[in-house]
Amino acid sequence: MKVIGITGGVGAGKSTVVSIIEKNIRMEYLHCDVIAHELMEPGGSAYQELLELFGEEIRDADGTIHRGRLYEAAFGAGRVEELNACVHPKVREAVEERLAALRTAGFDGYVLIEAALLLEAGYQEICDELWYVYAPEKVRRERLKRNRGYTDEKIDSIMGQQASEALFFKQCDFVLYNDSAPEDCERHIMEQIRKHQREEVAQ
Length: 203
Known about the structure:
- This protein is α/β, with parallel strands linked by helices.
- Helices cover 55% and strands 13% of the residues.
- The chain has helices at residues 14-24, 32-40, 47-54, 67-76, 80-104, 137-148, 152-160, 165-171, 182-202, and strands at residues 2-7, 27-31, 110-114, 129-134, 174-177.
- A five-stranded parallel beta sheet has the order 2-3-1-4-5, with helices on both faces.
- Helix 1 crosses helix 9 and helix 2 (32-40) crosses helix 5 (80-104).
- The longest helix is centred in the middle third of the chain and has 25 residues, at 80-104.
- The two termini are 15 Å apart.
């Protein structure tokens, strides 16, 4: 089993990269945002702590946490670190449990872990390799406006919370440039995977 951590700035195209890998090789995909949302559901390990931190007003009538109000309470009040300190260790624990289950089941393919805060949360400790999906800020801004309808203010807020490009380039093992045609991105991905396969054969 090979564990690949995938990260990159908002709008860099991490989901596109995962889709390309998924159609080419046998893989399991652990999306940390999805896992975080599961843990915020009633009964999840982050649910009660979030209510205690940010108040009952983040909860809907059906008991679920309204993520828009939660993020507004965190980002709008400068309490993002509190949100991250509550959620991310629990996500990391869930990821490690799922990796252990895959190993126990004898899974021998690729496991992709996608996380915006991959470096900050220490995922390099449990990954065989870190991939940085890179696209220039101008390209990322255009994608976010076109595909998600984000305003410049919202983009500025999100980008301001993320690690610098220099840190990604320094700490990641493989940089995947995703600022041109999709077929170029796919070619680079497959070159890296074939490199892994050659290394495995040589061992």
